[in-house]
Amino acid sequence: MKIAIVSDAVYPYHKGGKERRFYEITTRLAKKGHDVHIFCMKWWKTPEKTRVENGVTLHAISPLFPMYSGKRRSISQGILFSLFCFNLIKESWDVIEVDHMPYFPLFTTKLVCLVKRKKMFATWNEVWGLDYWVRYMGFPGYISAFIERVSIFLPDVFISISQHTTNRLKLLYRVPDTQIKTISTGLDTSSIELVEPSKQKYDVIYAGRLWKHKNLPLLIDAMAEVVKKNKDRTCVIVGNGHEKIHLINKVISLGLEKNIFFENFMPHHDEVFGLMKSAKVFVLPSIREGFGMAVLEANACGIPAIVVKHFENAAVDLIEKDNGILINPNPKEMADAIEELITNRRDILNVKRVATKYNWEDIVDNLEKHYLTS
After folding, report:
1. Which of 115, 292, 295, 297 has the greatest number of C-beta atoms within 10 Å?
2. DSSP notation for 241-293
């Protein structure tokens, strides 16, 4: 098949979860013999608009527009990229899949698909709904919620990345079950197994973006409780984001500079895996996740995870009895869970076993089947 993917951002130029997911899927589809193309903004600095990377052809259908305006996704970027998606009228494909965020490309690509009489697949990472949009943006959130609501009518087939997202599509927007294919994100446990543990050792690790909804002040408050009982406990927070200065200042204000350390995003994912392998517990304090891949990555590295219970957090579904603990968003409860997992170590094979359920090869085979039959 000739497969087209429409996504404003592309890995490794932008290292988000959705970009990594498309990278893992498209490179494997190319190895299976499919002709795979990604239509994106122009992230590379060399002059050519088309280039082949790892068997996948990347097409720059628009200039590179800044993805963020302050602490939020740029609305103008989404609109501008969507207008350039009209260039897809010149292309041909057997299957086209569009990333649903930032919504606007769904509208233009749908018009192109109608002209070409082709179905449109859409990857759906999260469902926000009116309540969250208003909490996030205030009054303008009503407009964003309306755009999300209208966009629901556009895809012929939804590729939902988690059962959590599938349930919310059905509950909030009454999307028929027959229109949704739940195909999770995966990981390559065999390559993670080869990574050597880091020489830097910490008790607790978080790795991800430093954004407000990641709820990292909760982890810092929990570490303050942990240190009251054991002053030698350490934590590393790996990542960059708008909240970083605020988080550093909070650590300083609590006098935890010798217990909580910060590392920037690392250019190679193996470096993060090395740190995970040298840690004892992974903590995801986030209250909103479309999937929660870092939980499974930590499990593949042999360490259990602590995840916060919240109705918008899909990572809750990843926790079983062997691979971690679910807690309420409470510093004392998180501190107790950290001590429990450090003191009473989980069986490493049972922790890793959960991660092996999310195998990329099986996921790509499943997606390929839906491409062929939908």
Report:
1. 295
2. -TTHHHHHHHHHHTT-TTTEEEEPPPSSHHHHHHHHHH-SEEEE--S-BSS-H
